[in-house]
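Record filed below.
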Amino acid sequence: MIKIKDIFALMESHFHGSSSGLDPLISYLSLPLMIHKDNVFECIDVPSSGTSKKTFFLLDTNRSRRTEPLVNLFLEKCKVAEFETLIDNELQIANEKCIDSLIKRDFESLYNSFEKLSQIQHEHFRPMIPKLYQQFWADGLNSKNFLFKLCGAGGGGFILGITPDFEAFCRQYPREQARVLYRF
């Protein structure tokens, strides 16, 4: 798997300037991967209930973007000690809690951790959020009816969303193009 990841990293670097190769590896495998600190990859099983209202979804902003400028902006921000501390002490911890909660199928804990991720991104990654969706993002944080997280741009304009009631989200925002990824 590491050899395939390295090949994908070289291919994807052509488009992004540099790449870990993880995104194309996960797409290639069509499986969620847990990447441990010792560079060991583990395919994980996250069973779905299939009909629950609690849902991860992709929101299509219909705004194509390039990844490289966003990665460069992030790397530039990481040169500031306070931002690097935020990443290490808040963002990474919230992300790890999201993963742990997802594996345990603990939606309440996942939603709380995802909210923290969403708040951090809304506050500190705003230039990476499509302008037309910045207020929409804030509305989700304020109402707690849905939350967003940035996805890699990759030429597309998708945002990862989570909601306790996907059908209610679709009724409230019928013009948005949202597609179910996973139901709890």
Q: What stands out?
A: Helices lie at 2-16, 22-29, 67-77, 81-104, 107-124, 131-143, 166-172. The radius of gyration is 17 Å.
